[in-house]
Specification:
single chain; about 300 residues; alpha+beta; D-amino Acid Aminotransferase, Chain A, domain 1; D-amino Acid Aminotransferase, Chain A, domain 2; 2 domains; 9-stranded mixed sheet; 6-stranded antiparallel sheet; 8 helices; 15 strands; binds pyridoxal-5'-phosphate
């Protein structure tokens, strides 16, 4: 077995990993140089939260994974049920109560040429322990954001491995002293670098339509269903930064941070009702905790 040197401590070597059809040690160097994910970013991925040993919103994740694969004409080479069983086995092997499952599917191992090779796709997966309490502060107190031009491609609903615009926007935000960036395309807010975004005006919740300009987040999907089921008016409509700055509430939605208030944009206070008792954000946070108890 060959292994690569740890970059930063040894935590990344822990957990469960699966690649090239078998469970392997996370540090084992099993991805060949000519894997198309490595050469072209030619593949898709998902991140699933595990709480109390059980995956959260797994059906939504599986559905999106299949949609992403079909959208880029990527062979699955296994049934969705087989994939689901593999994820469950990996979680069980890890023995972790709170964790993240990351899995990606690449177009496989082939000589570097742009055209699709007719070969099996390559699935890799890790299960890593997650300290959920690390996000308590952000969920409670909120985020200080900046905003930037959304320079991504036109198929953002695909959970593609190509995250360069997202990581660049995130790093630029951090370098400027903010926690993250809101992305704006053609004058309208789309989402953030790794979360969807919603605003509340009066009793109505607004979020960008689930079209090709945003990732169709599973947390967003959970939120919209919950809000509509409880009679809240939700409008999947575009909004501008000006509208965001004047909204009653502003918050993010994502698998890892769940629901987090946005409290400042470029140093200006926003969403002065977001953190109030009984706000939409607080209702969503409670609803999420409740569903965690029932999975
Ligand atoms: C660009 C982007 N938007 C939204 C989300 C939130 O999606 P989900 O709720 O499925 O985690 C993510 C999550 O990684 C993301 O990368």
């Amino acid at each position: 077995m060959s292994s690569i040197e740890p970059m930063n401590g040894t935590e990344w070597q822990e957990g469960v990993a699966y690649a090239r059809g078998r469970f392997v040690a996370p540090a084992e160097a099993v991805i060949p140089i000519d894997d198309r994910a490595h050469q072209f970013g030619d593949g898709i991925y998902e991140v699933i939260r595990v709480i109390g040993g059980r995956p959260l919103l797994m059906d939504y994740h599986m559905e999106r994974f299949e949609t992403s694969a079909n959208a880029i004409k990527l062979r699955l080479d296994r049934s969705m049920e087989e994939l689901r069983q593999l994820v469950l086995e990996a979680i069980s092997r890890s023995g972790y109560s709170d964790a993240q499952v990351y899995f990606q599917l690449s177009r496989g191992l082939a000589r570097r040429e742009h055209a699709f090779p007719n070969i099996p796709s390559h699935l890799s997966l890790t299960v890593r322990k997650m300290d959920d309490s690390a996000f308590d502060g952000v969920r409670e107190h909120g985020l200080s954001m900046t905003w930037t031009d959304d320079i991504r491609w036109k198929l953002c609903y695909i959970k593609s491995l190509n995250l360069l615009p997202n990581v660049m926007a995130k790093q630029a935000a951090l370098d400027a002293g903010y926690q993250d960036a809101i992305l704006v395309r053609d004058g309208f807010v789309t989402e953030c670098t790794s979360s969807n975004i919603a605003i509340v005006k009066g009793q109505t919740v607004y979020t960008h339509p689930a079209n090709e300009r945003v990732l169709h987040g599973v947390t967003r999907r959970f939120a919209l269903k919950y809000l509509r089921d409880t009679g809240v008016e939700v409008r999947e409509e575009m909004f501008t930064m000006e509208e965001l700055m004047q909204a009653d509430e502003v918050f993010t939605m994502s698998t890892i941070t769940e629901f987090a208030p946005i409290v400042k944009v470029n140093g200006f206070d926003v969403g002065n009702k977001t953190k109030s008792k009984g706000s939409m954000l607080r209702q969503l946070q409670s609803a999420y905790q409740l569903q965690i108890k029932h999975i």
